[in-house]
Amino acid sequence: MKIKLTSVYVDDQEKALRFYTEVLGFAKKADISQGPYRWLTVASAEEPGGAELQLALNDNPAAKAYQQAMFQQGQPAAMFYTDDVKGDYERIKARGAEFTMPPTDVTGSTIAALNDTCGNLIQLTQLTRS
Q: DSSP state, 119?
């Protein structure tokens, strides 16, 4: 079994696409519209055939409530792994991202957290354990 797709709810798909591609550096993978519905995914530029992240519109009241509760509690909606969290922090910050936590050493990893501007906190993680 493999994880092929996961989703984050966003309050604006166009704004999310700009953030995830222009600020984080992901590549647009799928963008299919049918009426008011839009299937929008991005993937890592490092692994274009790897897992996709759906940028799902939070137009469902349950989705919106979940997204807001996670944000208010400081819980990341997604975690992205990196080999250079400090370098990515500097690169992403220079592109205008708002970090809520700079690179911080915790047990087994160094993490940083940022606001994706679409209602979510995102965590960057660099494992330090062997």
A: S
